[in-house]
C-alpha cells in the first residue's frame, strides 16, 4: 500500500511497484487514478486508517502535509497530518516505510548522517521528526529524502519543474545561493524505494541526490537545456519573506544507502533527459 499516492512521490512509487508486478493499493485524499495496475482507495488518514492498511504486507507512507510555510502557520494541521496520521498507520500496519525529510536537521553543517542528532528549525521538520518515532519503535524504516523534483501527476509544480519551465520560456529564475540541500529526482528515488522493499532493512537510511545549492541546481538545469545561464539570478534566504525558517545546509550523507546498493545516479543524469 502506498499512502499519498495522488502526490508526487507516492504516485511514482505506486507506478514503480505496479510495474514490478506487485498488487498495489494507492491511498489518496483528493485526486487519484491514472495508473494501470493500482487499486485506488480514497481515505483521509487524519480521520482514520482504511482497512487495507491492516491487510497490506508493507505500507509506504508518503502522505504528508509538505507545505513548509503552511505547517508553520497551521501547526495543528501539520501535527495531525504528519504525526497523528503516521502514528495510526504505524500501529495498524505490519511493516512501514516512512518518508521523512532532511528538514529534521538544523542545517548548521550539512552532510548529515543517519546517526546525527536531529534539531529542526521549523514546524514542518518537527512534525516529520515526531512521525519517525512510532515507525522506528515498531521496527519500520525511515527514509529521509531532500529537495524532491520531477513531474507531478496532477500538474503541481515543485522548484525543479518551475525552474525548467521558466528557463525554457526564456524567463529569469531566482534561486537561493545560501541554501544547500540534496536535489533528488523522484522517478529514480521511486526505483530505489522499490529496491529497498525487497531487502531486509530497518532503521534510518538517507536516500538523496548530490549536494547543491538551489542556485547551483538551477544553473545545472540551464546547462542541460542549453539556455543562457545568466537567466539564473542569485537570491538569498536572508532576504526572503518566508513564514518558516529554512536550514542553511540540510544536505544528506548517503553512504549507508550506497553500501546497500541504493544510491542514486548523479544530478546530471536526470537533467540530461529533461
TrEMBL record:
What EC number(s) are associated with this protein in UniProt? 1.1.1.133
Please indicate if the UniProt record lists Oxidoreductase as a keyword: yes
* A Pfam short name: RmlD_sub_bind
Task: Give the keywords, sorted.
Answer: Oxidoreductase
UniProt key word Manganese: no
- Tell me the superkingdom of the source: Archaea
Q: Residue limits of the RmlD-like substrate binding domain?
A: 1-271
Q: Which residues form the signal peptide?
A: none
Catalytic class of the enzyme:
oxidoreductase
The protein's matches in InterPro entries, at most eight in alphabetical order, are given as:
dTDP_dehydrorham_reduct, NAD(P)-bd_dom_sf, RmlD-like-bd
GO molecular-function terms, A-Z: dTDP-4-dehydrorhamnose reductase activity
PANTHER family named in the record: DTDP-4-DEHYDRORHAMNOSE REDUCTASE (PTHR10491), METHIONINE ADENOSYLTRANSFERASE 2 SUBUNIT BETA (PTHR10491:SF4)
Q: What is the protein name for this chain? A: dTDP-4-dehydrorhamnose reductase
Task: Give the species this sequence originates from.
Answer: Thermoproteus tenax (strain ATCC 35583 / DSM 2078 / JCM 9277 / NBRC 100435 / Kra 1)
Give the gene name: rfbD
Amino acid at each position: 500500500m502506498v499512502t499519498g499516492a495522488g502526490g508526487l512521490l507516492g504516485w511514482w512509487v505506486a507506478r514503480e511497484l505496479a510495474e514490478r508486478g506487485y498488487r498495489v493499493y494507492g491511498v489518496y485524499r483528493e485526486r487519484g487514478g491514472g495508473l494501470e495496475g493500482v487499486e485506488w482507495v480514497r481515505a483521509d488518514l487524519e480521520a482514520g486508517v482504511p482497512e487495507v492498511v491492516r491487510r497490506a504486507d508493507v505500507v509506504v507512507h508518503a502522505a504528508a502535509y509538505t507545505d513548509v510555510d503552511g505547517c508553520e502557520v497551521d501547526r495543528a494541521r501539520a501535527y495531525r497530518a504528519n504525526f497523528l496520521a503516521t502514528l495510526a498507520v504505524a500501529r495498524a500496519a505490519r511493516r512501514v516505510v516512512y518518508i521523512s525529510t532532511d528538514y529534521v536537521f538544523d542545517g548548521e553543517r550539512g552532510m548529515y548522517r543517519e546517526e546525527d542528532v536531529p534539531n529542526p528549525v521549523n514546524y514542518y521538520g518537527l512534525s516529520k521528526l515526531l512521525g519517525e518515532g512510532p515507525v522506528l519503535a515498531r521496527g519500520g524504516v525511515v527514509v529521509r529524502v531532500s529537495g524532491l523534483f520531477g513531474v507531478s501527476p496532477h500538474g503541481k509544480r515543485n522548484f525543479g519543474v518551475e525552474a525548467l519551465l521558466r528557463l525554457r520560456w526564456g524567463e529569469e529564475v531566482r534561486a537561493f545561493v545560501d541554501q544547500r540541500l540534496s536535489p533528488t529526482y523522484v522517478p529514480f528515488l521511486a526505483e530505489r524505494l522499490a529496491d529497498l522493499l525487497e531487502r531486509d532493512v530497518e532503521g534510518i537510511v538517507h536516500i538523496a541526490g548530490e549536494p547543491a545549492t538551489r542556485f547551483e541546481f538551477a544553473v545545472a538545469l540551464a546547462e542541460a537545456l542549453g539556455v543562457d545561464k545568466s537567466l539564473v539570478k542569485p537570491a538569498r534566504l536572508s532576504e526572503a519573506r518566508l513564514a518558516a525558517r529554512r536550514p542553511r545546509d540540510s544536505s544528506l550523507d548517503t553512504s549507508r544507502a550506497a553500501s546497500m546498493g541504493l544510491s542514486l545516479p548523479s544530478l546530471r543524469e536526470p537533467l540530461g533527459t529533461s
